[in-house]
């Protein structure tokens, strides 16, 4: 099994670990410390050694932060984790703040004590983040202190070791373009800005730029490394020697100098001494490295990671690989949905059993490299917790008269998948069917949307929410996130959400389409497919270049939860066409013994 189900934290973490941290803060003459969820690479999913926020608070979600003071502690999370943070971070020790309403820097600006010394680790914060805290410090009058030794690391006696999984070549048959060509492409873009070099610090960009994959981060095939790319296309890759075998230097070629991570400081100093113009993404680069360049005399060119957009806008081979991965993955999910509709209807199956069953179906595909995240296997009230992680402590039965939500995905060499399906256990209520159908209407509206070139995800988010808004309902998470190609299941810069986002949707971008509805304490509903941005045919009489989405996830959507009376003819036609495509693509991979069920599950309505 890729995933385990033992609790990775509990409410005692705060009582056990806060005193240890505060003792260390006293040693370092600090009155407080800022704890981001991020690791030294700004990853979303992080290695065990970097789970500093979880260690101090008990909160195990993938996004959040904390401010620890001598007399109080605050944990910040967004709407996805409203319920989870209250279950995991003991309210006797932590106050809860919605980070979408009040960020840690804004909180400190209003609550920081004049003259207090508030520490931060410059390896864990970007320069953009530090600037916001500096503004807060000026307003409140506290001193912002960059620590040399992270006080959590000093207090965490059994901190797991730093991962050193070998980095492996990602063949061009999957990548669609050689690493040499990618470096040349990015180098040419750098030349246009006048930059002599770029500091690349994001592991997804390292993986994409050099066509390598790793295993340093669970569920995401990332090598933890950094690089400097020069204007002539040559590069220096800073990676632990334990991760480098004899095949990697030959694969990367003579234009890539592979050195240990400890040599990065000297390389930054050299760039400064030569007065080089160095491109740095202020939202990704650790403040430590940005300041090192600045102090050394480099001329810093602040710009977005030059690999981000080329990585997000997949090439034809990557898109075709994603389609193929989704067909195979869809066959495994279809087998699982059949199991849910038969054996799991007994009322005796629990969430862990269900998660294991789906993983087993995926594992039979043989080319499964990992899950793309720990499955969200939520029965009944647990389904209302958006990013619920089942454990032996929370494991619930799939009881009759309830809904079961399963959000899962796989990592395959040709693509990353992410799919959510909601199914009834027993007979659903009229309310469940109404809410499910409204979520489905929003899902269909986004899937069918045509929009002008230049449109961003913020501008179209409302399309998926309107059927819920019409009934006075909503959901507190984004409608769509970017997805990588055998990389992160959450990938920027594209997204579809209420939150402002100026990145235009570009052909080749893969996103999720996942509206939902959650009734706290009772049930959760989400329908998620992945979609690819593509060019639309010119409309008769139209004068704008238009884009549209292609749905690539292939698995049945539960029809027993659909109130057909709420669907328009066009909406009914969409789901019939979608299920027709699922039959055509997934049908050849479905075992004969479930073919009758499969035909019924994808029947026309």
Characterization of the model:
- The chain is α+β, with helices and mostly antiparallel strands.
- It folds into 3 domains: 12-155, Creatine Amidinohydrolase, Chain A, domain 1; 168-311, Creatine Amidinohydrolase, Chain A, domain 1 (3-Layer(aba) Sandwich); 313-595, Creatinase/methionine aminopeptidase superfamily (Creatine Amidinohydrolase).
- The chain has 19 helices and 28 strands.
- The strands form 8 sheets. The chain has a 6-stranded mixed β-sheet with strand order 4-3-2-1-5-6, sandwiched between helices. It has a 6-stranded mixed β-sheet with strand order 12-11-10-8-13-14, sandwiched between helices.
- Strand 2 (65-69) and strand 3 form a beta hairpin.
- Helix 11 (264-273) runs parallel beside helix 12.
- The relative contact order is 0.09.
Radius of gyration, taken over Cα atoms and rounded to an integer in Å: 25 Å
Domains, number: 3
Q: What is the typical, i.e. mean, pLDDT?
A: 96
* Structure classification: alpha+beta
Biggest sheet, open or closed, and with what strands and sense?
Answer: 6 strands, mixed
Helix percentage: 25-40%
Strand content: 15-25%
Low-confidence runs: none
For the terminal residues, how far apart are their CA atoms?
38 Å
The count of DSSP E runs of length 2 or more, i.e. the number of strands, is: 28
The strand order across the widest sheet is 4-3-2-1-5-6
CATH topology of the largest domain, by name, is: Creatine Amidinohydrolase
Tally of contiguous helical segments:
19
